[in-house]
Amino acid sequence: MDRRSFLEIMIATGLLGAGLPGCSSSQPLRMGLHPWIGYESLYLAEEFGWLPQRVRLLHGASATDSLQGLADGQLDAAALTLDEMLRARNGGLPLVAALIMDVSAGADVLMVHPAISRLPELAGKRIAVEPSALGELMLQRALERAGLAASDIQRVDLPVNRHLEAWQQGAIDASVCYEPVASLLAAAGGERLFDSRQLPDTIFDVLAVNAERGANRSQDVTELILAHFRGLDHLVRNPHDALYRVASRQQVSVAVVRRSLAGIMLPDLAANHRYLAGDSRIERAASQMIGLASDSDTSDAKVGEFYSARWLPRRLP
């Protein structure tokens, strides 16, 4: 399971799509999108009719759908985590990060049982973590802060959608997870001990564009990015309306949406220009993902020209 499989960790959200259609040369720019709080700008843009005419959002249940669509040539772009994009690049897809959609600032978290109050107390404990570069990064950094080695804990490799069940069964003492699982574990008595606020500018979600197709559809990609910023503006300027729209779409409470939003940063256009114009922070984050990956698909990857500001607008209307 991938990090952003939001529907797989909520109960009966009713958002499962009918799959991704095939492609033809006459179709508009096709972008894969799946539910995640950092992607809500584009859902809002679609809802309000702000998407450019030559752009179509294709809805999937998780990043797995988007990655498959990219691999099959059914998609030209998709919203992905940085490590998902790097894995796809290593598999031969010419993907480039054209936009930083969000940066984790508390959304990724280590939840523990109340009896654990300090990081060194993780020694000997059973910690659930999904086998991914992001899960590995969070666990390793928490252990470093605790002064512990991987051999000092009992690691439980487990997809994040099974962490709550394992918690309720008493099978684990801690969980490396993210929203909304973090809130579900908190409701079950868990406490937050470490989160991505201690790892600034490390965990990114990006708009990944097929560089070959993006080169021929430059204006469409730029207009898609403009639609993102228009949706983001609505989220910031009209939070009451936006929160209820997001909650209704994801079939969660407004309180869960607020907590999810509080755990991410949403970079504006100026911040994106800084990130994508040679900012070493995104290169450092990519290097960490590659170095800590537990699967060969990512660990064999190389940090190359995986991001570009070429599609960013110079200014907003």
TrEMBL record:
Residues 42-242 form the SsuA/THI5-like domain. GO terms for cellular component: periplasmic space. Pfam families: NMT1. Gene3D superfamilies: Periplasmic binding protein-like II. The keyword Repeat does not apply. It comes from the Bacteria. SUPFAM superfamilies: Periplasmic binding protein-like II. This is Nitrate ABC transporter substrate-binding protein.
